[in-house]
Design goal:
Length: about 110
C-alpha cells in the first residue's frame, strides 16, 4: 500500500468511528469524547504536515471527518471512501499552498 492509500483507509476508519461515537452520544452515553482514537494525529504525521500548518491542517481535517453524520450522508451517502479522497485532496492542496508561500518568501 502507498502512503496515500493508508491515509485514505485511516480516514475512512476515523469517519466510521466518529459516526459510532456520535450515535452513542445520541443514545445518551456520557463522556464519549474519551473514546477519540487520535487517528487524525497519525494521518497528520503520515502526510508530513509542516508544524506551522498543523492548526489549519487539523481544522480542515475536522471539517470533513467530524461533521454531523446526517450532513455526511448528504455529502457522500454511499461512500466514506469518496469523502476520504476529497479530504485528502484538500489537505494535500493546503500543504502545497503552504510550500508555495514559503518558496515565494525566499
Amino acid at each position: 500500500m502507498t502512503t496515500k492509500q493508508i491515509v485514505i483507509a485511516l480516514m475512512q476508519q476515523d469517519l466510521k468511528h466518529y459516526q459510532l461515537i456520535d450515535g452513542l452520544a445520541q443514545l445518551g452515553l456520557d463522556r464519549v469524547e474519551e473514546y477519540h482514537l487520535e487517528i487524525n494525529t497519525i494521518i497528520c504525521e503520515l502526510m508530513k504536515a509542516p508544524e506551522a500548518l498543523k492548526d489549519d491542517w487539523y481544522d480542515t481535517y475536522a471539517s470533513f471527518i467530524y461533521r454531523n453524520p446526517k450532513e455526511l450522508i448528504e455529502i457522500a451517502p454511499d461512500s466514506p471512501k469518496f469523502l476520504a479522497h476529497i479530504c485528502f485532496k484538500y489537505l494535500e492542496e493546503l500543504q502545497e499552498q503552504y510550500q508555495r508561500s514559503i518558496k515565494s518568501k525566499a
